[in-house]
Write a structure and sequence with these properties.
mainly alpha, Leukemia-associated protein 7, DLEU7
Length: about 230
């Protein structure tokens, strides 16, 4: 078991990052649903997947997520107020149209038409976050099911600092508003995750057995979901 300590520690950092990413993704899904359905509640969405965690990493993650939740709670309240105001404006516009059917209706910026740049940007950001969540989950699964047994048999290089950096990036991202800082953190998380996977593949190339080949193939599949930017 002592042989597996480096990989266990690296995996723990990645688990913290995964839980943080799942929380962010869960909240974004709730925000998207509220945009379409003003009475939607966040707890109606599927909760983030639970992942087995242990040791100091669990306590550390709890502190980080408490801060993230506190920050996000304020955003959610502001979002609900904005949604309520928008609904009232739409009702007022509808009443005016019914009372004056002959008058031309004013153009509404929310009418169908070319998508606004902000909307397209949000779609791209949400798509990237979803890919990172999926890829991180796949990486954790590959490490738990394939790499840990191989590492116990023949230890290979583990670059712990990359997993620490990935966790820190995700924790910082959870405290940001959706904007340039959030986007920069998301891009950094994408690049860091790619680096972790690429280094694991390199570490396994010196072992010719079929089991290592299967592990490398699984890691390459993860890279396919994380195209270079």
């Amino acid at each position: 078991m002592a042989r597996s300590v480096p990989l266990f520690v690296s995996l723990n950092h990645q688990l913290v990052a995964l839980q943080t990413l799942q929380l962010l993704h869960h909240q974004q899904q709730g925000e998207d649903a509220r945009a379409c359905h003003p009475h939607y509640k966040l707890d109606q969405a599927s909760p983030p997947l639970s992942t087995g965690m242990y040791g100091p990493a669990l306590h550390e993650m709890g502190l980080g997520l408490d801060a993230a939740r506190s920050s996000r709670a304020q955003e959610q309240e502001e979002g609900r107020r904005a949604a309520s105001k928008t609904s009232e404006e739409e009702e007022e516009c509808g009443s005016q149209a019914l009372s004056n059917p002959g008058e031309p209706r004013p153009k509404d910026s929310r009418q169908l038409g070319p998508a606004r740049p902000g909307t397209l940007t949000q779609i791209a950001v949400h798509s990237m976050l979803s890919r990172i969540v999926d890829s991180t989950s796949q990486l954790v699964s590959v490490e738990q099911t394939l790499l840990l047994p191989l590492f116990q048999e023949h230890p290979f290089p583990i670059h712990l600092k990359d997993s620490v950096e990935f966790r820190n990036i995700c924790s910082h991202m959870a405290l940001q508003l959706e904007g340039q800082r959030f986007d920069r953190d998301l891009h950094a998380a994408h690049q860091c995750l790619r680096l972790i996977v690429e280094k694991l593949i390199d570490s396994l190339t010196v072992f010719p057995s079929d089991l290592y080949a299967i592990a490398r193939a699984s890691l390459r599949q993860i890279l396919q979901n994380l195209p270079e930017m």
